[in-house]
Design a protein that fits this description.
Strand order of the largest sheet: 7-5-6-4-1-2-3-8-9
Mean pLDDT: 82
Strand content: 15-25%
Radius of gyration: 24 Å
Structural class: alpha/beta
Number of helices: 10
Order of helices and strands: EHEHEHEHEHEHHEHHHEE
Shape: elongated
Distance between the termini: 28 Å
Largest sheet: 9 strands, mixed
Helix content: 40-55%
């Protein structure tokens, strides 16, 4: 008898929450929960619109609904790990509230768990609402991290839509508590028996994406820092190239070479490489500093369980 915990992260999603809940209710009777029942855990990530009011109404209507509300916005990754921390299910599925992650995939996911899998990564085959640039950068991100990382090879286009067993959730609760997180990467790196399922991302049911290009770039940089130390080794390669260039210019000077424009250009390039390496080191120091401060990943302001505030 497997209990299902469905975790939905929410940040200013007043336009889609009622649609999401209505869509879930329409498939609820068709799902096989293994006789263990289910719980819907909505994690309100510091929304400033009417999202929390809508969630309170939903919680009053359904005894299986739980709401965890943060004291402020801590980010999507924090919302997912908070849901995992509070989940009581044998099978835990993380997804977004905008209906881009199809609810119809829940039944195939549960079937995979019946086959003995403990980690299921949902691989997006296409994204109808994303433009060509976003789709290209998404593919490029996975290829870059796979090329740089010697720790884990990620499934291309794997999303924040994934499912794990309670045993995997215990590992994430206990050991993967970094302040700078890439949860879908952790899920794929913990081991256990895993598989993938493909899905097509639908159009957003309402509202707009909260991921700006700047946020995506910062996220990509922090992920590379968290999963690879290769950028730190660039200093060794740059030093070797610089030494070789210095030897070449020294020999050229002894032979009467006086083309100072070439020398100045080379010096500028070397300084650019130096500052790049300093910036890379700064990113690693920033991650280490965040861990040293050991501030909480999230702070819960209110919890609603079966319509009762905690």
């Amino acid at each position: 008898m497997k209990k299902l915990s469905l975790i939905i992260s929410v940040y200013n999603e007043e336009a889609v929450l009622e649609k999401f809940y209505k869509a879930f209710c329409s498939i609820e009777q068709n799902l096989e929960y293994g006789g263990g029942g289910y719980e819907l855990i909505f994690v309100n990530d510091g929304s400033t619109d009417a999202s929390m009011n809508i969630l309170e109404v939903i919680a009053q209507q359904n005894k299986n609904v739980r709401v965890i509300s943060f004291s402020r916005n801590f980010g999507h990754e924090a919302a997912m790990i908070a849901g995992i921390d509070h989940a009581a299910g044998d099978v835990i599925i993380c997804m977004d509230a905008d209906l881009q992650h199809p609810l119809e995939c829940i039944a195939p996911i549960m079937a995979k768990f019946e086959e003995g899998y403990e980690v299921i990564s949902m691989v997006r085959t296409s994204n109808k609402s994303a433009g060509a640039i976003k789709n290209f950068t998404s593919r490029a991100f996975y290829r870059v991290i796979n090329a740089l990382s010697d720790q884990v090879k990620l499934e291309e286009n794997a999303s924040d839509f994934f499912a794990i067993s309670s045993r995997v959730a215990d590992v994430l609760r206990t050991n993967y508590r970094e302040k700078t997180r890439f949860l879908r990467g952790y899920v794929q790196s913990v081991g256990f028996r895993k598989t993938t399922l493909e899905y097509t991302a639908a159009e957003r049911a309402g509202g707009a994406s909260h991921y700006t290009l700047k946020k995506l770039m910062n996220f990509a940089i922090s992920t590379i820092v968290g999963f690879s130390d290769f950028p730190l080794k660039l200093g060794l390669y740059a030093g070797a190239v610089s030494f070789l260039a210095a030897v070449i210019f020294a020999i050229s000077a002894l032979c009467g070479f006086r083309e100072y424009k070439v020398i100045l250009a080379a010096v500028n390039v070397l300084f650019a490489v130096l500052f790049l390496l300093v910036g890379i080191m700064g990113e690693y120091f920033s991650v280490a500093f965040a861990e040293l401060k050991n501030r909480p990943i999230y702070i819960v302001e209110k919890e609603i369980n079966s319509g009762h505030c905690v």
